[in-house]
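Hi R.,

As promised, here are both runs. First protein below:
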Amino acid sequence: MLLRIHHAAIICSNYEVSRRFYTEVLGLQIVAEHYREHRQSYKLDLMLPDGSQIELFSFTDSPPRPSYPEACGLRHLAFGVDNVDACKAFLESKGISVEAVRIDEYTNRRFVFFADPDGLPLELYEVSA
């Protein structure tokens, strides 16, 4: 029986840039970091405060994402936050482009989109009122 989402896996084009983004900008905690010589690939396990994780991988010559954002597969990765405005301002202070805040038409919750260094769509979704 499924209990919860344990992790999402992301393949990046520039490991150092993405490592800094997810750890220094988004503040995710490093659980483990491994270089896999046989694959010439890094695997970085990152954890959010609730215990959910992101696996960040680097591979040589990975194909680019086919289109934005309506390609088949993962559409975006959403993070629950207490205050969308504060998070948006923080990201913008780090030079990250953030879209305008929107309202979910079904839940009336506020959300906003931005992208990781490879253009992966990320969402901040306000979980508290």
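And here is the second one, sequence first, then its structure tokens:
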Amino acid sequence: MSHNANDTAPGPTSSIVQPLQDVSLSLLTRILFLSILRIARTCHAVRLAVRDYFSWMSDVDERLSQFFNDPLAFWSLQALSRSKTVEH
């Protein structure tokens, strides 16, 4: 199989980055996220652990639906609770 100069193989973390491309993140979150991706490049075992973690995290609403009828209402309540804590 021949490759053109324009062909690029997907990187080890491309499956992690793809779902998060449309997410608006704060600067600190972006820095932490990029640091995790850099760590994921250190070895195969770490890359798999990072991939599994992000896969697990992307499923949080599904996991919460086991406990709550409306996960969005749960998130809203959490945000309301947090905003009251920050105000004081």
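A quick note on the second one: The chain has five helices and no strands. Let me know what you think.

Best,
J.
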